[in-house]
């Protein structure tokens, strides 16, 4: 089995284990940052079941939404159809380790683009920045710590926004750093647990 097949099998298994994996609601940190932006063309990397893509379409964006999982994309397309946003969203099955959606974008969103598999995350994010139109925004939100209900949190490493920025290797004449820090938000675990999650937030504008 090739690495690409292993990656696809992992994420298909992830989405097929339940009828719906995510809540269907937009990530509130993403919405807070994206709402003031002037709508244009957006790219949603690892779009999953499509909540963020639908939110963007509802707010006037033309959206390209990419994921490796056909199951996730089918659910995302269904969500778009149910909300009347399908005409504003193009869905693409893409393995980001092998390729990248074409075009220039005013916003590229990478929400929790983290994987337990071998994944060239820094390379993908460098491509994401390169795909920005001048003045465009790269918005990266990561898990910055394990959830309080995790049984394996002590075994996991999480990049800080500063780590991510350093990995991109961008110069000051290429990028304006508009935000780099962490936020906390309430969330519920798979067994109904309640607690606070910590997210790392990085907002970069291409000069």
TrEMBL record:
Matches recorded under PANTHER family: METHYLTRANSFERASE (PTHR43464), UBIQUINONE BIOSYNTHESIS O-METHYLTRANSFERASE, MITOCHONDRIAL (PTHR43464:SF19)
GO process annotations (BP): methylation
Single annotated GO MF: methyltransferase activity
Keywords: Methyltransferase, S-adenosyl-L-methionine, Transferase
Protein name: SAM-dependent methyltransferase
Keyword Glycoprotein: no
Source superkingdom: Bacteria
Biological source species: Streptomyces tateyamensis
């Amino acid at each position: 089995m090739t690495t690409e097949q292993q990656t696809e099998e992992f994420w298909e298994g992830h989405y097929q284990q339940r009828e719906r994996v995510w809540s269907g609601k937009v990530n509130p940190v993403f919405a807070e940052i994206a709402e003031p932006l002037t709508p244009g063309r957006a790219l949603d990397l690892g779009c999953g079941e499509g909540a963020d893509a639908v939110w963007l379409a509802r707010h006037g964006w033309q959206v390209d939404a990419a994921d490796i999982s056909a199951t996730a994309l089918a659910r995302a397309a269904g969500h778009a159809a149910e909300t009347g946003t399908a005409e504003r969203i193009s869905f693409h099955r893409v393995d980001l380790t092998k390729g990248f959606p074409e075009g220039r974008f005013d916003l590229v969103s990478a929400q929790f683009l983290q994987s337990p598999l071998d994944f060239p995350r820094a390379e993908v994010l460098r491509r994401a920045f390169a795909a920005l139109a001048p003045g465009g925004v790269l918005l990266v939100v990561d898990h910055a710590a394990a959830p309080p209900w995790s049984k394996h949190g002590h075994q996991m490493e999480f990049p800080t926004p500063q780590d991510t920025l350093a990995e991109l290797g961008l110069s000051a004449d290429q990028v304006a750093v508009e935000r780099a820090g962490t936020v906390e938000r309430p969330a519920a675990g798979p067994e109904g647990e309640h607690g606070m999650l910590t997210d790392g937030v990085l907002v970069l504008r291409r000069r």
